[in-house]
Amino acid sequence: MAIDRSDTPPADRLRAPGLGLLLAEARGIFELNASLLLSPLLMRAPRGDGHPVLMLPGFLASDLSMAPMRRYLRELGYDSHAWEMGRNTGGISRMRAALRDRLAGIHAATGRKVVELLKASACRPDRAVIVVTHDSRIFDFADRIAEMEDGVVKKIHEAGEYRAHYV
Known about the structure:
167 residues, two-stranded antiparallel ribbon, 44% helix, elongated
């Protein structure tokens, strides 16, 4: 049986966006030019210390839309990362596991860099670096490992001995 759609009222049909909405989309051209003109002012923002920043695109946007912001943050000295999950279709609860994995990957990559910098700065005989962490990856860099309980050092191990028995 065929359905007659000829008497469907026009209000129920999808319509093209109005002229006002189309003109509003053109603001992107003006925003791009404004950001280029204001770039000297934007570069006066506080400098970053190299820590990682995960950039999450807005609703229905992708990593491509965040590329200028990631570049700007890199120029300021931050280690900006794309989220690498395609278009943001919302539903943070659906993406929670993927975001957790992405953050873990960034942490694995950048955490090691931090530890290497600490080790390099501690190689001088007049320096010592003390790191308090729950991250067992630091054991590879440690000379000694102290066990603490309630803020009190219970035992100090040589790193090799500790790794052999506990890791």
